[in-house]
Amino acid sequence: MPFRFPVKFDIPKHAYVNARVLRDQFKRIQYADNEVTRNALRYLARNTELPAKVRLEAQLQLTSMPKYTSYSQIKNRCVATGHARSVISDFKLNRTAFRERARAGLIPGVTKASW
Amino acid sequence: MSILKKLPSKARLEQVKKLSSEIFGSTWNPNNIRNGSKILRAPLKGPELVNYYGVNDSMPTFQDFKKWFPELKLVDPREAYRVKMVEDRKKRNKGAPKKKKE
Amino acid sequence: MLCRTRLMIHVAPLRSLSTFRPLLNSPPSQNGAHSSPEEFKAQAEEKKREEDRFHQSILQGDVEYEPKYLSEDKVNPISRRPLPLNVELLKYKPLQVPKTHGHQVAKIEFKGFDRTELLRAAEFAARAAYYLNIPCSRIANLKTERRLYTVIRSPFAQAKSKENFQRRMFGLSLTAFDATSEVVDIWLSYINRHAIDGVQYNTTTSFRESLDFSERLDKLASTDMKLPESFKDIDDPIANRIEELLKSDTFKKLLDETPENH
Fold first, then answer.
1. Which chain C residue has the Cα nearest residue B81?
2. What phi and psi, each to the nearest 5 degrees, are found at residue C255?
3. Which among C51, C58, C184, C202 is most buried, taking Cβ atoms within 10 Å?
4. A112 interfacial to chain B (CB closer than 8 Å)
5. Which domain of life is it from (chain C) (predicted)?
6. Contact C165 A113 (CB under 8 A)
7. In the Cβ-directed half-sphere of A57, how many Cα atoms lie within 13 Å?
């Protein structure tokens, strides 16, 4: 069975894993691997003191990089359910997963607020 | 200490500021030209992103315990429950459909 | 109550977030995976052997034991002696050593969700400072930060009914004055060794240098490059690597170059 992504990586063991989470993890790893190149190209494209041709070339190279290396493709998913919407970043949990655990007292420091 | 009768000219003051930024190693961009330095200044965020779903080495999992203590014949209750549910669904003819062969 | 129990469905219980500090902070072993039971047993045995050696070394020396007591009259019936002074002082607030010059040397901030644990950690640090003769301030309260999380109750629609959760971060701070850098290092390493789970420690240390700092830096030789004594038994891999690098030939060559040859 060939690995379903171009580059092999370890599947996360301590989070809920589904196809979308795998895709997101792959994107994260690819971003981390290509971050330096991307940052360099971004710098060349954004620096107004460089000649226009250099900036254009950098922009073209940036767009020609595979889309799974882009930072904007990465989405913080819920670590318990794999859901992508309403994720509270402090806990990496979806709002329903957060509420279940908070009410059960499983999140340290979190209590029902009333004031 | 003598008191200045009038302040030095703006050009002179700018020279001072430029020199002081050279000495103390800070940036000097009086006209706020966009030179992309903010991209170079920002710290790399790759490692933090990769560890979002947890570091695999940080804690052992049930599979690790099964590998370390085969003689104990450990049974993961969560996995056992999941497998039981799948089998029950298959019995009721509700199992997952066959994968399409191209 | 949760809907799952109401519907009487058997679902596996929710996993809680782990806050067990030693597990979270311990670095993975060299082979990359978490240490197996054999490795862990070997490590534990090695630790025990070291501790036994330490105990032996103490017992062999002639140790004069003249304990001080605060309340000599209250004798414990089982041990037939009063409470030692340091144990008795635990009942009272930490004592303070008076400042000699008032130069701030270190500031520790203790942050956490549990007030009692924070107070424990702060009082421990303050008492350790007293015994090390470091002038310390009184334990000060930091502003508690409150984060509010408002969440829709239902898993689907019904956005009109929400629920509020909060998380309060309490804080305490301790300021240390007038101690030498070595003493402060010992104090901080002692606190770090007996750090309490669930408390976040942030320290800033500040020292004054003379104006000929750069000349003194140039005159440093490779023999001066070593970690402080209090860091001798540290198990941080970065610290070990620093030590290795400082002893390596390239660094020695670079450090022993005279300023004219730079």
1. C12
2. -75, -30
3. C184
4. no
5. Eukaryota
6. yes
7. 7
Q: Tell me the three state secondary structure of residue C178.
A: coil
Closest partner CB to B33 (pick from A25, A49, A79): A49
Q: What CATH architecture does domain A76-109 belong to?
A: Irregular (4.10)
The ipTM of this complex is 0.91
Contact C151 A113 (CB under 8 A): no
* Residue extents of the structural domains in chain B: 11-51, 59-91
Report how far residue A109's alpha carbon sits from residue C199's, in angstroms, rounded to the nearest whole number.
12
**Can you count the helices (H) and strands (E) in chain A?**
3, 3
- Convert the pLDDT of each residue in A16-51 to its tens digit: 999 999 999 999 999 999 999 999 999 999 999 999
Cα separation, A83 vs C130, in Å, equals 52
Selected for mutation to probe chain C from A110, A111, A114 (highest C CB count within 10 Å) is: A110
**Model pTM?**
0.76
Residue A100 near chain C (CB below 8 Å): yes
Superfamily (CATH H level) for C96-208:
Ribosomal protein S10 (3.30.70.600)
